[in-house]
């Protein structure tokens, strides 16, 4: 059994003609686009959700259209904005922000480290070495308390 209605050729032609009349010509479309320009952006948009969203890689992005690092959607990574506010200056363009604890949406100022892009891997190495040193110091303290290690 066939589902739905099947239109005759005549009816399909009539529907097609009606659809063609509904389409706007290019000049009218351009005028409408110009009239709406800037009116449906940001908080004026009916789909506005506060200007904060999570990037596919786990970073938080904030709507900031006037920021020099804003992308085509006018979004800037929150960790850059937090670091710039904490430091009172803008992040140099050849620098990047590193999350010390590795959690990409933890944007507390104390968790952010700015470093030149070439030295970013060096910062990661330093972080892992510091973590290892802390673990060894804790182990050292534990062994001293147990009397198994002398000064």
Mean pLDDT: 84
- Low-pLDDT residue intervals, each spanning 5 or more residues: none
DSSP helix count?
4
- The N- and C-terminal alpha carbons lie at a distance of 90 Å
Kindly estimate the percentage of residues that lie in beta strands according to DSSP.
5-15%
Radius of gyration: 29 Å
**What is the strand tally?**
5
Oligomer class = single chain
> Tell me, what's the shape?
elongated
Sheet with most strands: strand arrangement:
1-2-3
Class inferred from helices and paired strands: alpha+beta
Task: Report the biggest beta sheet as strand number plus sense, adding barrel if it closes.
Answer: 3 strands, antiparallel
In percent, how helical is the residue content? 40-55%
Spell the H/E element sequence.
HHEEEHEEH
Descriptive overview:
The chain is an alpha+beta fold and 151 residues long. It has a domain at 52-146. The chain is 41% helix and 13% strand. The protein has helices spanning 9-22, 26-36, 78-87, 120-146, and strands spanning 52-54, 60-63, 75-77, 95-99, 112-116. The longest helix is centred in the last third of the chain and has 27 residues, at 120-146. The protein is elongated, with a radius of gyration of 29 Å. The N and C termini lie far apart (90 Å). The mean pLDDT is 84.
Topology:
Layout: H1 9-22, H2 26-36, E1 52-54, E2 60-63, E3 75-77, H3 78-87, E4 95-99, E5 112-116, H4 120-146
Antiparallel strand pairs: 1-2, 2-3, 4-5
Question: In summary, what is this structure?
Answer:
The protein is 41% helix and 13% strand. By secondary structure, it is of the alpha+beta class.
């Amino acid at each position: 059994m066939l589902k739905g209605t099947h239109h005759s050729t005549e009816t399909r032609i009539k529907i097609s003609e009606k659809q063609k009349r509904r389409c706007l010509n290019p000049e009218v479309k351009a005028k409408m686009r110009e009239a709406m320009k800037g009116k449906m952006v940001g908080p004026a948009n009916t789909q506005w959700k506060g200007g904060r969203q999570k990037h596919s890689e786990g970073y938080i992005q904030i709507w900031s259209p006037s920021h020099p690092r804003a992308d085509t959607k006018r979004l800037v990574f929150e960790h850059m904005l937090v670091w710039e506010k904490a430091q009172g200056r803008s992040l140099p363009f050849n620098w990047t922000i590193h999350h010390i604890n590795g959690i990409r949406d933890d944007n507390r100022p104390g968790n952010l480290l700015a470093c030149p892009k070439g030295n970013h891997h060096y910062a990661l190495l330093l972080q892992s070495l510091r973590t290892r040193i802390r673990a060894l110091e804790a182990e050292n303290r534990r062994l001293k308390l147990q009397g198994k290690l002398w000064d």
